[in-house]
Design goal:
The protein is built from four helices and four strands. The protein is α/β, with parallel strands linked by helices and 99 residues long. It has a single domain, classed as 3-Layer(aba) Sandwich (Rossmann fold), CATH 3.40.50. Strands 2-1-3-4 form a four-stranded parallel β-sheet, with helices on both faces. Strand 1, helix 1 and strand 2 form a beta-alpha-beta unit.
């Protein structure tokens, strides 16, 4: 399985990456939504995406909207990583992920 981690924090990407590698998964990293979309447009195949909600430029919800707007990416499982301050927007995030 190959997972794409999208997070502007290098430290968070590294921690998540090492955890997933220890589980035997293949991992790619993207520092922002633009880089993540570039991977997908190049035809990279991912079995799942781990996306940080709070990123500069394109936040996690905007990235998910972009990903889900493409038929070829509608079935990729997504986990949105967020802080507690987004609790009131969880419903909005779930609707996008399930779209």
């Amino acid at each position: 399985m190959q997972i794409l981690i999208v997070d502007d924090s290098r430290a968070q990407r590294n921690a998540t990456k090492h955890f997933l590698l220890d589980l035997g998964l293949k991992v790619q990293e993207a520092a922002d939504g633009t880089e993540a979309l570039r991977y997908l447009k190049q035809g990279e195949k991912f079995d799942g995406l781990l996306i940080d909600w709070d990123m500069p430029g394109m936040d996690g919800l905007q990235l998910i909207q972009n990903i889900r707007s493409k038929d070829e990416h509608k079935e990729i499982p997504i986990i949105l990583m967020a802080e507690d301050r987004y609790n009131d927007r969880v419903g909005e995030a779930l609707a996008l992920i399930q779209a």
